[in-house]
Amino acid sequence: MSEATGAGVPLRVSHDGAVTWVRLDEPRRMNPQSPALWAELASVARELPQETRAVVLCASGPSFSAGLDRRTLTAAGLTELFGDTAEPEAIAAQIAGYQEAFTAWRESPALVVAAVQGHAIGAGFQLALAADLRIVADDVSFCMGEILVGLVPDLGGTGRLVDILGPDRALEICLTGRRIGADEAVALGLATLAVPAAELDSTVGDLLEAVLAADPAAVGELLPLLRGATGRDRAGQLAAERAAQSRLLAARLATLRGE
């Protein structure tokens, strides 16, 4: 296993064969997020080793992430984020760069699994939503808390919530900023499975074992097929299914014929 730490950024990345582990690593502060962390996350997502078939987004300590460092919301913090400008267009351009730390995982050729324990608030919740699957500890507490500080989710979370929950429930969760525990997360489809915190790592390991046992080419076709399903109409999704299956069958025929 190889491991690296982003220079000056509390992020540990390790590669274990076909699995890459991406771990937020500032547990004493509940793994707050910052532009520097986002830049590193985007870089890791874009530069995964070719052999990586699965990524685990996880965190050290009792909480996944308390979200954006609150110090960023001061005048000094906002100036650090966006410079001296107060023009919406310039601010939007900066945010577009920050969003890459979240959207890049949805474009990865690898399956992305979030292992989430404790608090996953704001940007922490949105990072978990960027994964394909979420396995949570029974003490998890999801919260889209941006509305509580006069902001909106802007790191891909609104689209993912609507994809998973539909617009009505997504709106309710974003408007209230309420906490969502493990049982409700599973019932709503926000989490695939909830387990005791002590069993989170082993449960993720069992999932990875099953994923890695599946045919790599089929998984490679299945991920974009399902990730893009909500953005296609019925005809478009049927066409995408045909195209994916045709590529797999053509490759199988070529192999069977010794071509």
TrEMBL record:
Signal peptide: none annotated. SUPFAM superfamilies: ClpP/crotonase. Transmembrane segments: none annotated. GO terms for molecular function: isomerase activity. InterPro entries: ClpP/crotonase-like_dom_sf (IPR029045), Ech1-like (IPR045002), Enoyl-CoA_hyd/isom_CS (IPR018376), Enoyl-CoA_hydra/iso (IPR001753). Pfam families: ECH_1 (PF00378). Belongs to the enoyl-CoA hydratase/isomerase family. This is Enoyl-CoA hydratase.
